[in-house]
């Protein structure tokens, strides 16, 4: 009898309708791996998430409206899941591929329920983030640990998690090929800008992996006879915390001041930051800053070489599958009691009201920073 193998693709998720934007933002900012509050301030996580989501929703809705009214991420990830299943089938590896989103439908919990119904005997978890960050892959794995810890069947299921794959030769070559093709159509480009999703500057490996990834891509391009200058920048900061630098908007102004006239942007994936922030906001800023020729490399999507490399990664991961267990610390961090939470919410609300009454200037300064 053939072993039933599952592959779980994890991704961020995104609102598909404008009315979904505010609850999506709430889910995002309620995640303690996205906005990390120290000590007792953790009690404010959910009230703060509510505040940020309400304040940010109008501006975010404008962005989603500009790209058709919703995020394309669910559609793209579904297409990648189907392409991956077909690639594995061509390798004589029959699998069921599931999609689990962290902050919007289909949620990870829904995918896990289907995996249980299908009685999968071995599972490969593949986050669609090339580099590891606590706020992306780490957050998604934490959710899985919590779910698996509470379920007898899942706690015994052999699982292999691919935590990062930015250094895989297939991925590097696929990125280099896309850049090369776009450069050939965009002959005037003299500099490339790698624009990647921003994470909080809190010492996780994302920055180092990102820099290594860009280095490997540039080395691959050099082997193809391409030696353009390049710059790495981070986008999509929000709130009063320290994010990774340099910021993309500041880099664009600086490049314009340095006399750069042609720029080709390389995003990590197709999401709201690509379709609205890069294609519209940053393009407008670049043109204002004196950069006359603007181009963007398309995301990998279902590029054949990329999907084949993901399939290879899945096959390589299968032999190492073992029961996924959460550490005691992770279990404690993800668990909360409803009554205890309501008590916390009550006192945090009182604290927020007191702060608003006694220090309104501080509150409104914080609000203005969120809306930047």
UniProtKB/TrEMBL annotation:
User: Where does this protein reside within or beyond the cell?
Assistant: Plastid, Chloroplast membrane
UniProt keyword Acyltransferase, yes or no = no
Regions that span the bilayer: none
Database matches in SUPFAM superfamilies: Chelatase (SSF53800)
One GO term under biological process is: heme biosynthetic process
EC number(s) stated in the UniProt entry for this protein: 4.98.1.1
**What molecular functions are annotated in GO for this chain?**
ferrochelatase activity
**What would be one Gene Ontology cellular-component term for the protein?**
chloroplast membrane
* Database matches in Pfam families: Ferrochelatase (PF00762)
Q: What is this protein called?
A: protoporphyrin ferrochelatase
Name the chemical reaction catalysed here.
heme b + 2 H(+) = protoporphyrin IX + Fe(2+)
Q: What membrane topology is annotated for this entry?
A: Peripheral membrane protein
Q: Does the keyword Lyase apply?
A: yes
The family assignment reads: Belongs to the ferrochelatase family.
Which terms are listed as keywords in the entry?
Heme biosynthesis, Iron, Lyase, Porphyrin biosynthesis
| Biological or metabolic pathway of the protein | Porphyrin-containing compound metabolism; protoheme biosynthesis; protoheme from protoporphyrin-IX: step 1/1
């Amino acid at each position: 009898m053939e072993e039933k193998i599952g592959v779980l693709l994890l991704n961020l998720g995104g609102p598909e309708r404008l009315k979904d934007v505010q609850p999506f933002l709430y889910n995002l900012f309620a995640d303690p791996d996205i906005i990390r509050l120290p000590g007792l301030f953790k009690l404010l996580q959910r009230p703060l998430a509510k505040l940020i989501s309400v304040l940010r929703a109008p501006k975010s809705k404008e962005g989603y409206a500009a790209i058709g009214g919703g995020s394309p991420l669910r559609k793209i990830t579904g297409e990648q899941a189907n392409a991956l299943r077909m690639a594995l089938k061509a390798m004589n590896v029959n699998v069921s591929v599931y999609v689990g989103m962290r902050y919007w439908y289909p949620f990870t919990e829904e995918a896990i329920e289907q995996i249980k119904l299908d009685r999968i005997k071995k599972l490969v978890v593949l986050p669609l983030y090339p580099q590891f960050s606590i706020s992306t892959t780490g957050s998604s794995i934490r959710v899985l640990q919590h779910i698996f810890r509470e379920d007898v069947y899942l706690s015994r299921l052999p699982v292999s998690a691919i935590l990062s794959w930015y250094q895989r030769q297939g991925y590097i070559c696929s990125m280099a090929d896309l850049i090369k093709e776009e450069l050939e159509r965009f002959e005037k480009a003299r500099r490339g800008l790698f624009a990647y999703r921003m994470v909080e500057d809190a010492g996780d490996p994302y920055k180092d992996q990102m820099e290594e990834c860009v280095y490997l891509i540039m080395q691959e391009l050099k082997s193809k006879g391409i030696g353009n200058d390049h710059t790495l920048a981070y986008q999509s900061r929000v709130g009063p915390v320290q994010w990774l630098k340099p910021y993309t908007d500041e880099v664009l102004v600086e490049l314009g001041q340095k006399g750069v006239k042609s720029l080709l942007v390389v995003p990590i994936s197709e999401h709201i930051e690509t379709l609205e922030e890069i294609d519209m906001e940053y393009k407008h800023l670049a043109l204002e800053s004196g950069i006359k020729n603007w181009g963007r490399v398309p995301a990998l999507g279902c590029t054949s070489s990329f999907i084949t490399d993901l399939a290879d990664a899945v096959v390589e991961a299968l032999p190492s599958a073992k029961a996924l267990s959460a550490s005691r610390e992770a279990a404690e961090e993800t668990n909360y009691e409803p009554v205890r939470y309501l008590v916390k919410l009550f006192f945090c609300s009182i604290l927020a009201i007191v702060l608003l009454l006694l220090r309104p200037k501080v509150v409104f300064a914080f609000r203005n920073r969120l809306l930047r």
